[in-house]
Design a protein that fits this description.
Blueprint: E1 7-11, H1 23-31, E2 34-37, H2 40-49, E3 56-58, H3 64-76, E4 81-84, H4 97-105, E5 109-113, H5 118-126, E6 133-138, H6 143-152, E7 159-164, H7 169-180, E8 185-190, E9 198-203, H8 204-213, E10 222-226, H9 238-251, H10 254-265, H11 269-283
Helix pairs in contact: 3-4, 6-7, 7-8, 9-10, 9-11, 10-11
Bound molecules: S-adenosylmethionine.
């Protein structure tokens, strides 16, 4: 895009390990005219560590719309601006959506500088199906609302990913066991990239016991990942679907086999796809 407007860079920063700051992030943050940060006091030490002296302004959830107008003016006048959040990728459960959508609507070029993101780091190491997944962010804080939201996800066949606060992680896993069943597999990814990084997989019931066994396990930052529902809806037998998939996957790629099996059984293609993959992985 060749106009005289500035560029808005969306820059990912470390989740906790400074070694994850990319050289490109340092270069961009050093060269823009202004850095919009979720919390300027939080980001100042990070920027100092990398010798970045660019002026900072605040853009957080309480001032995003007002701050947005001022930043758009600077961008329209040709200044380049970088957006960072406290940790990880801006806009992923962090401020920035209004700024990015307004910038794009005003014809301003928006350039991502990719890097750390807790949900992607957790998914990459969890060992759950990763070809299709759903990011649900934070669940409602109140139990009734949390349970009713979880119930809307009961039949979701893709891997589910949640962020959770430490003081709610046990309640959340307990509610998940109630809604999805104690035997559903799940993973807790805690303190990723930091000294006490822990990635623990078990059934939901097992994860509850594991959290209760040591209070330290409930401290820090958490991603919870849940295997999707790979079982059949009521009335269909799992065994039959597996039998059909076994025959089809001998002759066809997994995607095609799942599509045909979906037509034969009336089950969801995603669920069959995941079932075929887990059978395949179990064999290898
Ligand atoms: N923008 C961030 C990202 O790219 O992941 C997420 C920001 S959100 C406000 C903060 C939540 O992300 C935390 O409560 C936790 O659920 C998750 N999170 C952030 N850092 C983490 C880490 N090091 N380990 C595990 N989860 C983390």
């Amino acid at each position: 895009m060749s106009n005289n407007k500035g560029v808005l860079y969306i820059v990912a920063t470390p989740l906790g390990n400074l070694g994850d700051m990319s050289p490109r992030a340092v270069e961009v943050l050093s060269n823009v005219q202004l850095i919009a940060a979720e919390d300027t006091r939080h980001s100042a030490p990070l920027l100092r560590h990398f010798g970045i002296r660019t002026p900072l302004s605040a853009l957080h959830e309480h001032n995003e719309r007002a701050a947005c107008a001022a930043l758009l003016q600077r961008l329209a006048a040709g200044a380049s601006v970088a957006l960072i959040s406290d940790a990880g990728t801006p806009l992923v459960n962090d401020p920035g959506y209004h700024l990015v959508s307004a910038a794009r609507a005003h014809g301003i070029r928006v350039v991502p500088i990719p890097g750390p993101c807790a949900l992607i780091a957790a998914l990459s190491a969890a060992g759950l199906p990763s070809d299709r997944f759903v990011f649900e962010g934070f669940l409602p804080a109140r139990r009734a609302a949390r349970v009713s939201h979880l119930e809307t996800l009961r039949d979701e066949s893709r891997t589910l990913i949640f962020y959770e606060a430490p003081h709610r992680v046990l309640d959340c896993v307990t509610d998940m066991a109630q809604v999805f069943g104690a035997e559903r597999r799940a993973v807790i990814a805690r303190e990723l990239t930091k000294v006490f990084e822990t990635i623990h997989d078990d059934t939901l019931a097992g994860l509850g016991d594991w959290l209760r066994a040591d209070a330290h396990r409930q401290k820090g930052e958490f991603v919870i990942l849940l295997q999707g529902n790979i079982l059949e809806p009521a009335g269909q037998t799992d065994d039959e679907a597996r039998r059909i998939l076994r025959i089809l996957t001998k002759e066809l790629p997994v995607g095609q086999a799942a599509a045909l099996a979906a037509q034969i059984t009336g089950l969801k293609k995603n669920a069959l796809y995941n079932m075929a993959l887990s059978e395949k992985n179990a064999k290898t």
